[in-house]
């Protein structure tokens, strides 16, 4: 029988929404690595059974297939018990209007995401990146309209800079529009600098929640790349992800991290996830998995108590410079 996990729930920044501290995302996994219905169902069932209520998607994940397969698996649970997100920005077609944060693309992509997921509303809707070609007013007004139409409950940004986060908050407050409540940044022991030095101060100032992505640096922090690139691993299949990540220095750090995990009696994956969970401003850590065993491993991060001494050693091993 699967182990009982004690999930906890955090407020999304200053708003009333509660998200599970671990969540499950669909990038490169659902609809791509994971297409088989029974396996998808098994993973999603285990996630919900473990208390995960937040599922993170995007219009571009597996060209829309991630929304379809996860949406189908999620129909088993009452809609009110779930927090479902999607995102808009990256190209969904070849046309000049099939991308970006124009009113046209936001409205059209939101409709398609709702249809693929099979839901009437998204709990969270993210601007997947900043769009320098569209006036901020146009994007903010379109998002506000989606909220007023009831198609989106809360909106947010992903990988926006501190300055961009401040600017959109100011604009929405001045105009009386619903403002973003959440930012989705990359954050892990290996990718600390942008979030800690630039984004988190703006997130805290605006009272946003941070729901963070790639807690395992694409799997690097599990130790699976200690001896090279396993053939069935993400970074072997997606070579472009190796850049700035699969470095001798990072791999050496991950090897040295093993002693700290051993001391706590946990896996490196659990230690890496538990470290993100304890960081300031983090509302939820979005997991990615290709196998049920990985989900089991990662869920047990909630049982890891890092303590001050190991925390200091982790901070020294993975300095903020990255
Ligand atoms: N907003 C954005 O721009 C953005 C960008 C990226 C991701 N995200 C979100 O964040 C979610 C998580 O990101 P991510 O998938 O990159 O997270 P991650 O935890 O850094 O990497 C997940 C991958 O690592 C491997 N892995 C996971 N647990 C493992 C374990 N216990 N042992 C060994 N290998 C393990 C698996 O890959 P293999 O088995 O294939 O090696 C898995 O697919 C995404 O699904 C998406 O929802 C958002």
Separate helix tally: 11
Over the alpha carbons, how many angstroms does the gyration radius reach? 19 Å
Shape: globular
CATH class: Alpha Beta
Please provide the count of β strands.
10
What binds here, in terms of ligands, is: NADP nicotinamide-adenine-dinucleotide phosphate
Question: What is the H/E order?
Answer: EEEHEHEHEHEHEHEHHHEHH
Q: State the separation between the terminal residues, measured CA to CA.
A: 40 Å
Question: Roughly what is the average pLDDT, rounded to an integer?
Answer: 97
> What's the number of structural domains?
1
Poorly predicted runs of 5 or more residues: none
Give the CATH superfamily.
NADP-dependent oxidoreductase domain
What is the beta-strand fraction? 5-15%
Structural class: alpha/beta
Strand arrangement, major sheet: 3-4-5-6-7-8-9-10
Biggest sheet overview: 8 strands, parallel, barrel
């Amino acid at each position: 029988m699967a182990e009982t996990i004690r999930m906890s729930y955090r407020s999304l920044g200053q708003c009333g929404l509660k998200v599970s501290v671990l969540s499950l995302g669909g990038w490169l996994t659902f609809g791509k690595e994971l297409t088989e219905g029974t396996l998808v169902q098994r993973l999603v069932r285990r996630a919900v059974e473990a208390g995960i209520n937040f599922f993170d998607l995007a219009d571009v994940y597996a060209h829309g297939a991630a929304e379809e397969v996860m949406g189908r698996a999620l129909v088993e649970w009452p809609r009110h018990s779930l927090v479902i997100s999607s995102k808009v920005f990256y190209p969904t077609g070849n046309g000049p209007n099939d991308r970006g944060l124009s009113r046209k693309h936001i409205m059209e992509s939101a409709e398609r995401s709702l249809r693929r997921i099979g839901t009437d509303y998204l709990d969270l809707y993210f601007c997947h990146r900043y769009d320098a070609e569209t006036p901020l007013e146009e994007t903010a007004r379109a998002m506000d309209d989606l909220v007023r139409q009831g198609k989106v409950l809360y909106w947010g940004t992903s990988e926006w800079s501190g300055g961009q986060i401040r600017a959109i908050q100011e604009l929405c407050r001045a105009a009386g529009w619903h403002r973003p409540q959440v930012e989705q940044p990359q954050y892990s022991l290996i990718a600390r600098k942008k979030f800690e030095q630039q984004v988190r101060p703006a997130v805290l100032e605006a009272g946003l929640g941070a729901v963070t992505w790639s807690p395992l640096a694409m799997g690097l922090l599990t130790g699976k790349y200690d001896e090279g690139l396993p053939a069935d691993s993400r970074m072997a299949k997606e070579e472009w992800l190796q850049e700035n990540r699969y470095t001798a220095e990072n791999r050496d750090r991950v090897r040295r991290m093993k002693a700290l995990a051993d001391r706590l009696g946990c896996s490196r994956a659990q230690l890496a996830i538990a470290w993100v969970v304890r960081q300031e401003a983090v509302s939820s850590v979005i997991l990615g998995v290709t196998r049920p065993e990985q989900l089991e491993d990662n869920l047990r991060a909630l049982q890891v108590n890092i303590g001050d001494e190991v925390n200091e050693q982790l901070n020294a091993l993975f300095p903020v410079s990255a």
